[in-house]
Amino acid sequence: MANKSGGVPSKHSSPWSHYIDAAFGFRDHWYPAFFGDELEEADVSNAHGEEIANIRTEVILGERILFRRVNGTVYAVEDRCRHRGVTLAARPECYTADTITCWYHGFTYQMNDGKLTTVVTDPECPHIGKIGLHSYPTAERAGIVWVYVGDGTPHPLENDVQPELFENGITVAPFGWSKVVNSNWRIAAENAFDPGHAYIHRNSELVIENKVPTVLSNTNIKHNNGMEIVDVGDGPIGVKIHRASGTPVWEADAAEGVRIEARFRPGDPGVMEGMVPDISIWLPAGVAVDPFPAPGVLQFEWFVPVDEHRHRYMMTWAKRGLEGHAEKESFFTELRETWLQDVPEKFNHDDVFAREAMAEFYDEGDGWERERLYGPDAVITSWRRLVSQRGGTVQDSSRAWARRDLRS
């Protein structure tokens, strides 16, 4: 039977074989590339090409993409010269704000559409005006630069983000945190959405320092009981978990006479109240946690495929109901002074540890067959089935040409 990756039969026979095939991710989706404040306005090289211009590169779905901001707008092109395939970003030359010139033979391309405009070493070259770099559609919203990795006309960005991100009345921080993690994007997505993985956070520094009630697990979350599949019409596709509908596990026996207990429970003296977050996961690879890390604050996370072994882990935060410049700046200050450092370093670092610990098992290929899932994994298998049905075109390894990230 042909799968949805272009007619190539899957090697796997599971109900989510299309998902297993997507080691590099899914094409024809918008992905967050970086935060907008991380790319300044373009500058230009001198006549000898000695001044490096402002550019940024990211590897997404195995494709290395070069970004440049021109008059406020971010453009993106393939970071690979059409002549001999060298990486333009290795020695960037930009003699005008809206072009990039290959350092090897002087092939010069427009940033807005990738077209070859001149060749410094052969001004009469017949390729001029006839060939070019692949150009990627971009958008900049909610403080993030997004890039569409796919073919044809992109669908609306709103279809590929957490619905809360563009919600009316919400203030999203114009900055965030990111890191390349040595695990596949699917492992990261499942880790973030796993109701049983709360167990690893019972000893997280953030939980202890802020007295956050954190269960060992939530069980009995399944269809029609705390889990909702969202796939209606032309809009975001995902899975929602309403944790309050599940059965919280606050204590359990690890062995006879050995009782494991959550450090803090709702109602305990001095605990942070109002912290039973709902979690949702959305195609192609984003999560919303509401609330976290404090009441009234939302945390957004993304797991952007770099290649088959790595993903870029990104996160930012938002708050509803802020009015006026002063309230928003106060929220941003709170984030910069506290949560921007504490959440990644004192909480989500445990998730990174878990993802990298699972990487070898799943990178070997047969981990998907050898795993033995249990009750709370019902939400994970629902996600896998949904993505297998609705994820779209699997990124083929032959198109994932950039196996080395210059910034790693």
TrEMBL record:
The keyword Iron applies. One of its GO terms (molecular function) is monooxygenase activity. Pfam families: Aromatic_hydrox, Rieske. Keywords: 2Fe-2S, Iron, Iron-sulfur, Metal-binding, Oxidoreductase. Residues 30-147 form the Rieske domain. PANTHER family: 3-KETOSTEROID-9-ALPHA-MONOOXYGENASE, OXYGENASE COMPONENT, IRON-SULFUR DOMAIN CONTAINING PROTEIN. This is Rieske domain-containing protein. It comes from Mycolicibacterium holsaticum.
